[in-house]
Structure formats: C-alpha cells, structure tokens
Request: fold
Amino acid sequence: MSARAIRIASTLVVVAASLSAPAQGERPALDTAIERTLQRHARALAPSLVTLRIDHYALTRETARVRRSRLNRARRDRGIPRGQADVFERYIARARGPVTGLLVRPGVVLTSHYHVVGCVAGVRIEFADGSFARGRVGGWNATLDLAVILFDASRSAARPVALARAPLPPVGASVAILATAWGRDPLTINVGAVSAHERLDGRAVQLDGCLNAGNSGGVVIDLDGRVVAIVGHVDPLGARGLNSGIGFATPIAQVLDALDDLVAGRHVERDPRAFLGIRADSAGAERVLIEYVVDDSAAAAAGLRVGDRLVSIGGTRILEPEDVLRALRRRRAGDTVPVVIERDGEPLTVQVTLGSRG
Reply:
C-alpha cells in the first residue's frame, strides 16, 4: 500500500473514531448507524477520487475575458464597487488548486470548471494509489461549474465511478462530502445535511457540511452510497476568501446531462436560461416582495423596484420566492413576459424582455 493510500485510510479511521465516540453518554443508535453507513460508502468511493494540481496557470486573452465577465457578474450580485482591482487578483489566485477530481470514465476526470479554465500547460493528476498522470483540460461548462481533465487511461489502474441518475435527498437528509483538503494529500469526509434545493437559480443544492477550497470538485453521497451531486467552487469573494459555513453542489442529473458535451470538448460560457435580475423574499402569507434589483438587468431595464410585490410572472402566480424560479425555468433569454406587480397598492403589468447571466 502506498504512503498516500495509508494516509487516506488513516484519515477515514480518524473520522470514523471522531464521529462514533460519544461526548457524554451513549449516542442515539440511529445517528451511529447513519455515520457508519456513510463511512462505508466513502471508503468504497475514495480510490476513484484524485487530487488535481495546476502545474502552470496562464491566462490567455480569451480566458481573461471569461474570468472578468464572471467577476463582473459576481460583483453586481454582491454589490461590490467598481475599481477594486485587488478583488480580481484574489479571484484568479484562488483558482490555482490543488482541488478534487472524480474519475468518471477511463481517461476522464470530472472537476470544478472554475479552477481549471485558463490552464494551458496541463494538470498533474494524483491517484489514491500513489501514481500520477499528466492531463489537459477538455470541455467545460461555466454555468454548472463543471469541467473534465483528459489523460492517458493506461497511466492508472484506478476504477472509474459509474454515475447514475439519482433523486436528490430531501431537505434535512444526511449526506457526506468526500474530497481532498486544500494543500494536503489525505482525503476528507464532511458529514452534514441537505439545507435546500434549487438554489442559485435552480442550478444547485445547498449543503451545511463544512467545506474548504480543496473540496471543489468533490462528491456528495447519500445513505445508499450514490453520488448525488458534485461540489462547486468555494466562493473567493466571501469574508477572507473562506467558505461561510454553507456549500453548493451541482445535482447529478445536471452533471449527466452535460457530461457527453464535456468529454467531446465543448465549452459553455453563457447560461441560455432566462435571467430576470431580482432577489425576492417572503413578506407573509402569499406575499413576495422584490428585495434587490441587479444593476443593468432585465428587471432594472423594465423599471421594477425594490418593494414591489410580485403577483405573477408569465401567468405563473408568485406565492413564495421559489415560484420566481419556477416561472422562469422554461424561459430563455430574449423572451418577453408580462410581470404583474403591486406598487403602492395599485396593480401594474410590466412587459419584461428577459436577459441572461452572460
């Protein structure tokens, strides 16, 4: 057994011991059973996880444009003032890894798009058995934060994971996040729960497990050992560039829908789905108010304001904030839809030409 494999095994034992040891008295048998189940599935999956190290990171004109566009979207969404050049530099610096990858096909590693776009000189792939291979970036999807690294399959005997469509665990269900630690070789297991579905405009599931920057590209598994989501990148624009205690992951159904295109080398930068450009919040029973309007968005161009009550979008009644996502799910950028609001107690219908996140 290689030194790294021994460290991985030791990490799993330490995690198992820390999870199983009671703080005071005996812990409920159900909790212990859940933890042991997740530990068993994690051990089975660990050999298919790899560490990705970016050997050389160079921004071409095209990838610099992509990154600056994404930074500008993030800046608008978070209200970051213009002219903060240091934010962009930290955004780039955070992307250099090392991060986690998952072997999904012979010669194909799936990971987070954010960390590898712009890598023009190759990636070092380190396997659990101590072997390594050189890889190159294949296709990527900026919307789903996914990319693949391609390499010579003869360089490793590691067995790919057979991904399959699986329903997302319900909110509150226990899950485990299996990934590598940033800058360290041993794998980590973070046990937590599903906090919410359909976050980030329906693209992500929210988790409460603690994540670090190296966990990007890791996997979320359920109590049956199924991979149900792929961890997205840790937000570098948060406080001190660290995760704030929650994480987001791309559901496996969306991953599988995109995987063939990724392997074929296709690049997706712009989200084709509609973007209205508001943040809505509940204001009581069946009352949803606009809490924030994104600058230069479709909502801003149509004159929607903070404090407007949303009544319907494209004929879909808005009774809770999640209804906004449902109303836009089948729409595309460029569609024009009627948005019925209530302003100062008076009904008002506004025609909005939907935009995109690009």
